[in-house]
Design goal:
It is a single chain. The chain has a four-stranded antiparallel beta sheet, with no helix packed on it. The protein has a four-stranded antiparallel beta sheet with strand order 4-3-7-8, with no helix packed on it. The protein has a single domain, classed as Immunoglobulin-like, CATH 2.60.40.10. By secondary structure, the protein is mainly β.
């Protein structure tokens, strides 16, 4: 008899905890990136050899960031010791370009650092080179 009461209480407690223990509604978290960077290449898609990388850089409201210093470095993620870096040239309208020579195909990581006045922003961007 005690066993049956104990089991009944255990089942009742389990049901009660399950009913009361629902998860709280998830809060939506908006992305608040101060800078957005879009990368295009010529040729497109990026291939081994000489490539021009075109970076379009805008603020969080979509306005072009002009007159910034944009430093770009590229590292082959599959082979250590393969990398390059340089300063991109301001093309106006938030567009910046830099010439690169990708000696190998595969996965590359671009690190783009944007500085202007009080802005100091850095972002890693994956790039697949064919």
């Amino acid at each position: 008899m005690r066993k049956m009461i104990f089991v009944s209480m255990l089942v009742g407690l389990t049901v009660l905890l399950a009913a009361c223990g629902g998860s709280a509604p998830a809060e939506e978290v908006a992305s608040s990136k101060d800078v957005n960077i879009a990368v295009a290449s010529d040729p497109s898609p990026a291939m081994m050899g000489d490539v021009e990388l075109i970076l379009t850089i805008t603020d969080k409201d979509g306005n072009p960031i002009e007159g910034a210093a944009v430093n770009v470095s590229a590292d082959h993620t599959d082979m250590s010791g393969m990398g390059m870096s340089g300063l991109a040239t301001d093309q106006g309208g938030g567009k910046y370009s830099i010439k690169a020579n990708f000696a190998e195909s595969g996965n590359w990581m671009l690190t783009v650092k944007v500085t202007k006045d009080s802005l100091d922003y850095k972002e890693d961007i994956e790039l697949k080179v064919q």
